[in-house]
Amino acid sequence: MKVSYYPGCSLEATAKEFDSSVRAVSKALDLELVEIPDWTCCGATSAHATNHRLSVGLPALTIKQIQKMGLDCVVPCSACFNRLKTTEYQMIHNAEMRQEMEKTLAFQFDQQPRVYDLLAYMVEKIGLKAISQKVQKPLKNLKLACYYGCLSVRPAEITGIDSTENPMQLDNLMKTLGATPVSWSYKVDCCGAGHSIAKSAMVTNLSGKILAKAREAGADAVVNSCPLCQTNLEMRRPQGEDIPVFFFTELMGLALGIAEAREWWNKHLVDPEKIVNSIQAE
After folding, report:
1. How far is Cα 217 from Cα 213, in angstroms, rounded to an integer?
2. Which of 48, 87, 112, 240 has the least C-beta neighbours within 10 A?
3. Which residues, at least 6 apart from 190, have a Cβ–Cβ distance to it below 8 Å?
4. Which of 280, 226, 266 shows the shortest CA–CA distance to 248?
5. How many whole angstroms separate alpha carbon 108 and alpha carbon 115?
6. What is residue 6's three-state secondary structure?
7. pLDDT-based confidence at 16, cuts 50/70/90?
8. Per 3-state DSSP, what percentage of the chain is helix, strand, and coil (rounded to 5)?
9. Nearest 5°: phi and psi at 131?
10. What does the pLDDT average to over 64-72?
11. H or E element, residue 97
12. Under the phi-then-psi rule, with left for phi > 0, alpha for psi from -120 to 50, and beta for the rest, what region is 251?
């Protein structure tokens, strides 16, 4: 199976471990990633707040490249997915905007191929059964708070999520890997997103609540798919809070027995080594 791949800016900088784990896990699942040539920044998180046309134009330029490739596109970063999917939605449902983008960028939008959240693609297109057959080291006795945040979930008419209040894609994937997702009420709450610098106290408060609720629910760790959330939950946590946070592909790599997985932990700001060792000791 071959798809085009949009890594986005964060996966080449603060979330390199996410990119490394995405590539390794995709290879293990026989999913061939073809990185989009000359991809551009999606505009998150500032373009849509300052210039609406720019917020559509930047992802539209990438969609133009995707069409040239003729391959459906997977996007691991929730923020990038939201911007690309929002633009795809605009191009389908807003004729005036579509015509403006087609004229500006010199291409004709044909609605194919499509943009997918990598998590959703793995669960729905590759399938949980196929993934389960690749599991070598089940994540036994690992209790996880599956954290979806905002951008992979809302608005539902754009993201296509199964539920905006209680999504289950990540939970079901973690169950397939042998882990136990906990029931908790903060799985779709906002971490503060791009306000980490400008309003750090607010973000610390929001992130702190998320981590506290995860711990209260009995979770050993939090798992997510957003570099913005990962940064906030690691950097803007209350002093003394040490519950680790994983990208979902990192835990997939561990369960699939990928040898290089341990290298990813070195890039975390909160050391998950104790949790990883406890899983591997089972």
Report:
1. 6
2. 240
3. 149, 150, 206
4. 226
5. 17
6. coil
7. very high
8. 50, 10, 40
9. -65, -45
10. 97
11. helix 95-105
12. alpha
Q: Which two tokens stand for residue 159?
A: 């993201």
Number of alpha carbons in the 13 Å side-chain half-sphere of residue 253: 25
148: closest CA among 175, 117, 122? 117
Q: What is the mean pLDDT of residues 103-116?
A: 96
Q: What is the largest CA-CA distance in the chain?
A: 59
- 142: tokens are 């690992």
CA distance 146 to 100: 39
Q: Where residue 268 falls among pLDDT bands split at 50, 70, 90?
A: very high
Helix (H, G, I), strand (E, B) or coil at 246: strand
Distant-in-sequence, close-in-space partners of 262: CB < 8 Å, separation ≥ 6: 276
pLDDT of residue 262: 86
Consecutive H or E run containing 172: helix 169-176
Instruction: Please provide the size of the chain in residues.
Output: 282
DSSP assigned state of 79? H
> What burial letters (b/e) apply to 206-234, b meaning 16+ CB within 10 Å?
bbbebbebbbebebbbbbbbbbbbbbbbb
Q: Pick the residue with more confidence: 256 or 50?
A: 256
CB–CB of 191/207 below 8 Å? yes
